[in-house]
Design a protein that fits this description.
Blueprint lengths: L1 E6 L3 H11 L5 E7 L2 H10 L4 E4 L8 H9 L1
Parallel strand pairs: 1-2, 1-3
Amino acid sequence: MISYLIIDDENASHDIIRDYSDNIPYLKFSRSCYNAIEAIEYLNKENVDLIFLDINMPKISGFDFLKTIAN
C-alpha cells in the first residue's frame, strides 16, 4: 500500500484528488491538510509515501514547504 497526503488550501481539490485516488486500489488515504504548517506538524509524527501538494498556498508556498521538509 502507498499512503498519501493531500496538502491544498481548497476543499474542491481535496475532493477531486480523493475521487481519483479511490479508484487506485494500492493507494491509501492518510490525511488532508489545508496549509503547509498543518502538514509539517502531521509529517513530524507520521510517514507517508506520496504527497499531493498545491504550489500556491497562503503563508507558506508549496515550494517553501518542500525546502522546509528537505532539511
